[in-house]
TrEMBL record:
Region (Disordered): 270-290
PANTHER family per record: ALKYLGLYCEROL MONOOXYGENASE, STEROL DESATURASE-RELATED PROTEIN
Record organism: Kitasatospora nipponensis
Annotated keywords: Lipid metabolism, Membrane, Oxidoreductase, Transmembrane, Transmembrane helix
UniProt cross-references to Pfam families, sorted A to Z: FA_hydroxylase
Major location category of this protein: membrane
Membrane topology, from the record: Multi-pass membrane protein
Protein name: Sterol desaturase family protein
Ranges annotated as spanning the membrane: 12-31, 60-81, 141-170
Length: 290
């Protein structure tokens, strides 16, 4: 494989800004509280920070097999795209497109939701919520295989993914209402992402975009913010234990697999929506919080 392009570690560089902005937001709630906004709670924030720190450690381990697979695929790609100032923007656009489908898939396939549910497990919505990341993030790599096979260097893909992650930090806030209309039309904003984190029926499984909201508009998964969101899950987890937050949906899946009567139902427990149950459904599929 050609030499790895020299791209900055944007997530590591952004950590001081993450911390500073989180502190600023926390102080803003103390100085100008809003009874309609959830603000911060010590236990919830501590859990989010612990999940974020743990994800950095676990991701370092998951990265090894993923890089090996990507490297093998990149080696057989028919072309190898250069990493330059003029190729990075289309790579970022392609990554954002793949992220949309990765994110959407993690909401409608239960075994993938078991990973992503961690990010939605807080009943509060603030900048610390952005740091509440899963410890089993190895479920996302397959969605980016087309980019590697198209000749995008794995390091360039990692850079684009990092840029998306850094962008999405600031949209986890209630302190910003709406941006000017042209920006709301194109970009994923705090207003759009509040809808994504809400647990009301009309907001479930909506607004999957990373940097751009145009994919949701194109693929009919966009819903504007109208009523105030209620954050969390449709069945909330009453625990701040990071280990339980990281694994509770896997435990629920294991229980359902053990109780299933047929192998067909076992497969469906893994591949159908989070709300699926055998027999007449008691609630629509996809009613787990988004």
């Amino acid at each position: 494989m050609p030499d790895m392009p020299n791209l900055p570690p944007v997530v590591l560089w952004s950590i001081p800004a993450f911390v500073l902005l989180t502190v600023v937001e926390l102080v803003s709630f103390r100085l100008r509280p809003d009874e309609d906004q959830q603000g911060y709670r010590a236990k919830d924030t501590a859990t989010s920070l612990t999940m974020g720190a743990g994800s950095l450690l676990f991701d370092a381990g998951w990265r090894i097999p993923i890089v090996l697979v990507y490297s093998a695929l990149y080696a057989v790609a028919p072309v190898h795209l250069p990493v330059t100032w003029w190729t990075l923007p289309p790579m970022l656009l392609a990554q954002d497109f793949c992220y949309y489908w990765q994110h959407r898939g993690h909401h409608v396939v239960r075994v993938l939701w078991a990973c992503h549910v961690v990010h939605h497990s807080s009943r509060r919505y603030n900048l610390s919520t952005a740091l509440r990341q899963p410890w089993t993030g190895a479920t996302s790599w397959v969605f980016y295989v087309p980019m590697v096979l198209a000749g995008v260097h794995p390091a360039a893909l990692a850079f684009c993914t990092s840029v998306s992650l850094v962008y999405q930090f600031w949209i986890h806030t209630e302190r910003i209402d709406r941006l000017p209309a042209p920006l709301e039309l194109v970009l994923n904003t705090p207003s759009h992402h509040r809808v994504h984190h809400a647990s009301q029926g009309g907001y479930l499984d909506r607004n999957f975009g990373g940097i751009l909201i145009v994919w949701d508009r194109l693929f009919h998964s966009f819903t504007p913010e109208t009523v105030r969101p209620v954050y969390g899950l449709t069945k909330n987890l009453d625990s701040y234990n990071p280990l339980r937050v990281a694994t509770h949906e896997y435990t629920a899946i294991a229980r359902d697999l053990a109780a299933a009567d047929t192998w067909r139902d076992r497969v469906r427990h893994l591949t159908r929506g989070p709300g699926w149950q055998p027999g007449p459904p008691t609630s629509p599929e996809g009613t787990t919080a988004c």
